[in-house]
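Quick one, tokens below:
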């Protein structure tokens, strides 16, 4: 059977499974809608947390980033895994004991202020929409390539799927759907890795195969270093980033992880604090399976790509290349007219993404209207490295289709979690807690469902008008979470003297600073409509790492302002003391 037939079969089966779970797990109360009734087992919650956490950025983009960045890509592995450890050990048990549904709920009650709650809601919406933008782009990429539908139609299909299981079941439906999605995505990620590791190194375990020998007796990494240097790239195993920027990006990703509202809320779905710790440990184990495999996938895909396309006659190029050309995610412009693909160091494009003319070149290549004068003739979008890898390695069609199903599972699971955060922030923290305190449970549930519908429509627009490749957008979302939530949460738990004035000032300044830097140095939406060059970065800090500086500024402002203003009420200080006592576990409550 063809790849497309296999893809329709596997995607159809997985979607039917998601719909079945959504119908079975319909939410009948706000507690079921917000925290799945608070009675999810640690094992199920661990798998759901892993699926929630491992988004399209982890599945589709991370290995692609590492394959292009080499050693420098390790910041994503260190930051994202380290951040989860930080969250599991330092925050999750205390937040679970506090017993609230959402991060804005914690901040509103801890800082005895509806203003603090509103600022937290705004921060949650900014972080969640930035993060969900990457997920919807991932959905569009998978649908447009594997199901041969228009990318906009693909995004709409993805929106519909998420709407059904999130709208019906809320957190209850999302939780059990995410358990299924974890099984799908981890199987889809590992099977090609086993195949390619065996194919290239004779060792079925990819983590070991990455350090193994290839045909001819050379080590795989040595071979890749040689290929890189021959083409003018830096050695794959050497880094180019400054020590400070590596530290800044890693720390921003770590503390951003610990401040992500859609991951934090997962610890409110288990019955006890002990269960929160167990599910955190299990989730880390489930996450580690993919995260330790991603560097191997990066090495395999990078080696195969270079060997397959560099200096190859275009007319003899494999079918996968021309298939991906049609998506605009890989492109060739024959600048020297020799009919061969010249892949060397340097940008093939002056812009971020190829803009094709309708005509083809004399050698059949897609013409790139904004090609730069650099010698490099090949444009490769980083997001295709995992998705195209099985095709490049000439694996069976069912394996290629399986990767498509896994990519959709990863993107949809995280999108659902993020959309629920947006929904609960509006219905619970804004409407129930502030605008209409006397709203009935039925009315609150209706407001939550309307909010999730609106959020999905906005998320779909992000998918249709994508802001950049998936992992870059997601990394910026972590910076926003680091700059806004992390200081308010960590100081709220461990500093009795921290008051509402300090928390509000810190969050406002932190997220404003991060947004300014992100817009000025990343998006190109600043005055000249062109992202400012790296030479102008403050303290040599990239936009992905600036969350560290914004977080430090937040902490300093929060502490200074709190010491210059009145101390919190005595009952709040006692509450903070009680949170840190290990025994006991309060029931999650909406009141």
């Amino acid at each position: 059977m063809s790849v497309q037939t296999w893809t329709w079969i596997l995607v159809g089966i997985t979607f039917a499974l998601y719909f079945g779970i959504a119908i079975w797990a319909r939410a009948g109360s706000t507690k079921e809608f917000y925290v799945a009734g608070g009675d999810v087992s640690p094992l199920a919650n661990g798998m759901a947390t892993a699926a929630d956490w491992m988004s399209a950025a982890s599945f589709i983009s991370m290995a692609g980033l590492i394959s292009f960045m080499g050693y420098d890509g390790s910041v994503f592995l260190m930051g994202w895994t380290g951040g989860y450890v930080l969250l599991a050990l330092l925050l999750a048990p205390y937040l679970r004991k506090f017993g609230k549904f959402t991060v804005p709920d914690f901040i509103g009650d801890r800082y005895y202020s509806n203003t603090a709650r509103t600022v937290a809601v705004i921060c949650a919406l900014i972080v969640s929409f930035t993060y969900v933008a990457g997920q919807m782009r991932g959905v569009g990429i998978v649908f447009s390539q594997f199901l041969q539908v228009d990318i906009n139609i693909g995004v709409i299909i993805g929106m519909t799927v998420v709407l059904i299981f999130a709208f019906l079941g809320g957190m209850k439906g999302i939780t059990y759907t995410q358990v299924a999605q974890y099984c799908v995505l981890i199987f889809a990620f590992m099977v090609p890795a086993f195949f390619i590791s065996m194919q290239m190194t004779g060792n079925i375990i990819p983590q070991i195969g990455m350090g193994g020998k290839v045909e001819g007796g050379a080590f795989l990494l040595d071979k890749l270093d040689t290929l890189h240097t021959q083409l003018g790239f830096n050695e794959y195993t050497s880094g180019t980033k400054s020590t400070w920027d590596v530290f800044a990006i890693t720390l921003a990703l770590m503390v951003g992880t610990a401040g992500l509202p859609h991951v934090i809320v997962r610890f409110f779905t288990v019955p006890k604090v002990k269960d929160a710790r167990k599910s955190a440990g299990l989730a880390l184990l489930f996450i580690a399976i993919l995260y330790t495999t991603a560097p191997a996938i990066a090495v395999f895909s990078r080696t195969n790509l270079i060997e397959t396309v560099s200096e190859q006659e275009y007319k003899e190029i494999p079918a996968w290349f021309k298939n991906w050309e049609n998506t605009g995610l890989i492109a060739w412009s024959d600048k020297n007219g020799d009919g061969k693909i010249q892949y060397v160091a340097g940008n093939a494009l002056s812009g971020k993404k190829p803009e094709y003319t309708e005509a083809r070149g004399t050698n059949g290549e897609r013409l790139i209207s904004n090609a730069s004068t650099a010698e490099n003739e090949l444009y490769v979008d980083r997001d295709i490295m995992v998705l195209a890898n099985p095709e490049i390695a000439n694996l069976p069609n069912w394996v290629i289709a399986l990767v498509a199903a896994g990519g959709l599972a990863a993107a949809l699971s995280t999108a659902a979690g993020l959309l629920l955060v947006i929904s609960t922030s509006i219905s619970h923290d804004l409407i129930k807690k502030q605008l209409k305190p006397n709203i009935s449970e039925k009315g609150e549930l209706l407001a939550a469902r309307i909010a999730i519908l609106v959020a999905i429509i906005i998320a779909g627009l992000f998918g249709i008008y994508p802001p950049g490749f998936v992992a870059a957008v997601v990394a910026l979302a972590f910076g926003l979470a680091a700059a806004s939530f992390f200081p308010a949460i960590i100081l709220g738990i461990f500093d009795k003297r921290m008051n509402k004035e300090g928390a509000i000032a810190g969050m406002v300044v932190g997220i404003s600073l991060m947004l300014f830097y992100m817009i000025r140095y990343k998006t190109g939406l600043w005055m000249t409509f062109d992202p400012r060059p790296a030479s102008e970065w403050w303290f040599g800090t990239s936009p992905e790492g600036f969350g560290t500086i914004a977080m430090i500024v937040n902490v300093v402002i929060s502490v200074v302002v709190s010491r210059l203003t009145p101390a919190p009420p005595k009952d709040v200080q006692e509450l903070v003391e009680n949170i840190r006592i290990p025994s006991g576990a309060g029931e999650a409550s909406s009141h």
